[in-house]
Design brief:
Elements: E1 2-9, E2 18-21, E3 23-24, E4 33-36, E5 39-42, E6 44-49, H1 55-75, E7 95-103, E8 106-115, E9 118-128, E10 133-143, E11 146-150, H2 171-178, H3 181-187, H4 189-196, E12 201-203, E13 205-206, E14 209-210, H5 214-227, H6 230-243, E15 247-259, E16 262-274, E17 280-284, H7 290-308, E18 311-314, H8 325-334, E19 344-349, H9 352-357, E20 363-369, E21 372-377, H10 390-395, H11 412-422
Parallel strand pairs: 6-19, 6-20, 12-18, 18-19
Antiparallel strand pairs: 1-2, 1-7, 3-5, 4-5, 7-8, 8-9, 9-10, 10-11, 13-14, 15-16, 16-17, 20-21
Helix pairs in contact: 1-2, 3-4, 5-7, 6-7
Length: about 425
């Protein structure tokens, strides 16, 4: 899965339509782009801006689209509204979402509109390679509680779902829950590929915000490393050794932990440390530094994408990593011997080191003005030439996306006077 473009409106601090285009023209395409269905898609994309500008909200839009398209039916109860936040000043207006993405040889497009917690319409399309135009797989509109569905090509999807009438979940998520994957893959491969692609989207953010329970994350990493893919553990080990954290190897051990008021046996990653004389000891990952734990958690989101393909959407990546590790992460995605599946990375952050590694078409800035967020790409900035130092201009505030800070205007004495006057 590669995300080509995301468009959304009336979502959190974005009142107006926002477009995040991860594609480049053939002329602008670099060795950081991949040819996907005839479009050059940025392999690495960074979103920068001041605290509170809307960087996380932009990534939340991607996470919310992922949830709605692939998983909303499983999470929905019939009488519940869709869990989504509009702009606070536009609660009575609809919110719209569009994602264009590729999987294997097909380019897909999914659109939907939500109003007051209920779905108004949704459509699922793909580009027909013969005509190079979007063909509709299905389109569904809901009015007065009644669902109307059109499916121009009946052979593209199961046909017994025109009775689906829920307005708080997607038809695609319902079909994926109701049908066996192997049947969908065999009988309706175009439909299946486009929705199944969302399984390859790894993220540390949800519609509600950043997922920050490090303990839960590390237990999940440990369980998956043991049960699903031992090669991932070896890759984590290799990367951690390269970062030089003093870790020689990783292994999974079983131990008793306190879960609430009960004791449970859980699998957990242990790290082996070895000195120059060959003396060694192992520590459970929870006894490593918080920084090491965060690095492991971050890498767990990234490495599956590098190995198996897909897109990693990571909020505040540089807050979990030392600034000098950002070029290392970029190099991992650049390295064809490591990024064997041409995985894509979309991250938000602040660090200048990340800016230095990217070109203009891979850098996005977010600014908030008049309580409304806006996102734009660096190559859209008038007068910004390719030979300009983007990091230097960003630090000087010439490109936007930085806070206006003036500590000299804050006085404790004035605050005390205000409180005294009010009393």
């Amino acid at each position: 899965m590669h995300i080509h473009k995301v468009i959304f409106s009336n979502f959190y601090s974005f009142a107006d339509e926002a477009e995040i285009d991860f594609t480049s023209s053939e002329k602008k395409a670099s060795n950081l782009s991949d040819d996907c269905c005839g479009q050059y898609v940025n392999r690495i994309n960074g979103i920068f801006g001041a605290n509170g500008s809307g960087k996380t909200s932009a990534l939340k839009a991607i996470a919310f689209i992922d949830f709605f398209v692939h998983s909303s039916f499983k999470a929905a109860n019939e009488d519940e509204d869709i869990a989504m936040s509009t702009h606070e000043l536009h609660k009575n207006e609809p919110s719209s979402f569009t994602i264009e993405y590729s999987e294997d040889e097909y380019l897909y497009k999914y659109d939907f509109t939500i109003h007051k917690g209920r779905l108004l319409n949704e459509s699922y399309k793909y580009i027909n390679p013969k005509t190079n135009k979007f063909n509709t797989i299905y389109k569904r509109t809901i009015e007065d509680g009644l669902s109307k569905m059109t499916c121009p090509s009946p052979s593209l999807m199961p046909q017994n779902y025109n009775i689906f009438n829920l307005d708080n979940s997607s038809l695609s998520s319902f079909i994926f829950e109701a049908e066996k994957n192997e049947i969908l893959e065999k009988d309706f491969p175009i439909f299946f590929k486009g929705i199944d692609a969302f399984r390859k989207l790894q993220t540390n953010v949800s519609e509600a915000g950043k997922k920050e329970n490090l303990r839960t994350s590390l237990f999940g990493i440990s369980r998956a490393a043991k049960e699903e893919n031992s090669i991932i553990l070896k890759l984590l080990e290799k990367v951690l050794k390269n970062i030089d954290l003093g870790i020689e190897s990783l292994e999974i051990q079983s131990l008793i932990v306190l879960d609430g008021n009960k004791q449970k046996r859980r699998d957990l990653i242990f790290a082996e440390h070895k000195d120059a004389e060959g003396n060694s000891f192992t520590l459970p990952i929870f006894e490593e530094s918080t920084g090491t734990q965060k690095i492991l958690s971050a890498l767990w989101h990234l490495i599956p994408v590098l190995v198996a393909g897909g897109t990693a959407v990571y909020d505040e990546l540089d807050s979990d990593l030392h600034p000098y590790l950002m070029p290392f992460i970029v190099d991992l995605f650049m390295n064809p011997d490591f990024n064997i599946a041409k995985g894509q990375l979309i991250f938000s952050g602040h660090t200048i080191e990340a800016l230095k590694e990217l070109n203009k078409s891979q850098i996005f800035f977010v600014e908030k003005s008049n309580l409304r967020s806006d996102i734009y790409r660096a190559d859209e900035i008038e007068g910004l030439r390719a030979d300009h130092s983007i990091s230097n201009k960003y630090l000087k505030g010439a490109l936007g996306g930085v806070p206006e800070i003036d500590a000299s205007s804050i006085s404790i004495y004035e605050i005390i006077d205000e409180i005294t006057t009010e009393e």
